[in-house]
Amino acid sequence: xxxxxxxxxxxxxxxxxxxxxxxxxxxxxxxxxxxxxxxxxxxxxxxxxxxxxxxxxxxxxxxxxxxxxxxxxxxxxxxxxxxxxxxxxxxxxxxxxxxxxxxxxxxxxxxxxxxxxxxxxxxxxxxxxxxxxxxxxxxxxxxxxxxxxxxxxxxxxxxxxxxxxxxxxxxxxxxxxxxxxxxxxxxxxxxxxxxxxxxxxxxxxxxxxxxxxxxxxxxxxxxxxxxxxxxxxxxxxxxxxxxxxxxxxxxxxxxxxxxxxxxxxxxxxxxxxxxxxxxxxxxxxxxxxxxxxxxxxxxxxxxxxxxxxxxxxxxxxxxxxxxxxxxxxxxxxxxxxxxxxxxxxxxxxxxxxxxxxxxxxxxxxxxxxxxxxxxxxxxxxxxxxxxxxxxxxxxxxxxxxxxxxxxxxxxxxxxxxxxxxxxxxxxxxxxxxxxxxxxxxxxxxxxxxxxxxxxxxxxxxxxxxxxxxxxxxxxxxxxxxxxxxxxxxxxxxxxxxxxxxxxxxxxxxxxxxxxxxxxxxxxxxxxxxxxxxxxxxxxxxxxxxxxxxxxxxxxxxxxxxxxxx
Length: 565
Hints:
This protein has helices spanning about 15, 20-45, 50-70, 85-100, 105-130, 145-165, 175-185, 190-205, 215, 220-235, 245-255, 290-320, 325-345, 355-360, 370-385, 385-390, 395-405, 410-420, 420-435, 440-455, 490-505, 520-535, and strands spanning about 75-80, 240-245, 260, 350, 470-475, 480-485, 510, 515-520, 540-545, 550, 560. By secondary structure, it is an alpha/beta fold.
């Protein structure tokens, strides 16, 4: 169902991207991404404590508005699993704070409306970030705590959505660690028919990538899950409230085993054309000036911006034509789209890597593919709401469990360890602190742990933010930058600015690191990326002076320490 990836060498950039062939390719890619995006939008919205349709509106708005403002050519905008923890936390915390005395359903609705108010203010901040050209904000954060944050989010998603897969209601107010520890006991209460749908969906999601053959690999696993799970839901008559019993389970337990199923296990979505007001919700701004409100405004604006910029950067590197993204303009686009989304009851959005990768693999040429994916979603939710209603929630839960597994893949722990034991400690501190407290504290402790290691290795306090850099011009259009003290994540903005300034004036830039005490992993990896970017512009960046530095692991981007200084 997806086209072959584009070979840029066989397709000229200047001509082909503006012809009808390009338009057809963008439309096809947008349709294929729509098939993947629809179930994920529904799943992410529901897991976030929002109505399922709100996820669709997010992708529609992101597809249209961001395509008009941003110059990111291959990036798909929409709701992302990485924000589930923040959004759901806001719904619960704000609902509890302002909804004392209300019933649980009323408190959930109030929390949702209050979260929309928070999202509006956070979107305004993102617009300010874009106007102030804060797109380089992403370069200020070390990579290991960011990866730890994503892994922690993956574990939290698994902890919450595993209950959806087996048809069991988790304990209200339970934290991630409690949910994970209670999961074995919850398996004894499993609803067999719901679990059949959930486990079948998991088997498809984990099994299809292992199958060989171009035809099979071209079919999105999420689409297969939708078809199979919906068929199982129809066969099990989930659209009707009824009970059933399984005699063999009753004989094993020595008691009657009766289970309840019905429409509550299916997606609940309004008919927009016949009842448009039921599809939209408007913000409540009472929580904006509360302490919890301040906390979630910071999380929405900062974490959302950082994750979106990281994703946009990753997608830019996969663009077959290596087109540059204006990250300030992209951040502005996300802010404007988030403002529109929050104003009508939709989820916050970011640049999304998985859907963007599918967009590239499907043969997209320009940002019109993002717009097409949004328009296809709009058409489907307007014309076929009945089909969406037949999707079992267990299938959506399975998709999120699979997404959580990819975020917290055991391989990421191994890759982090290969960078060095210190990185694994920072990684684990971030994960454990996030699971035990919240996202802001977890990331903060991860960054502080990283700084503590830098100080222990002899990085001076004065060099953490303001490195000393000397620039000398040489014959042959060549500049040599000598860096003193340290090159670490917290001063990378200054280092990269100096490199880019020199690159704009000279054809070749040489960065001499022989006078540094410490060069951390974040800088090593970003130097590699920056070198590739400068090379694509017809210039050259060379890094010298690491001969006296000792690598803290065998990884090519491992932290380097100079014990002789």
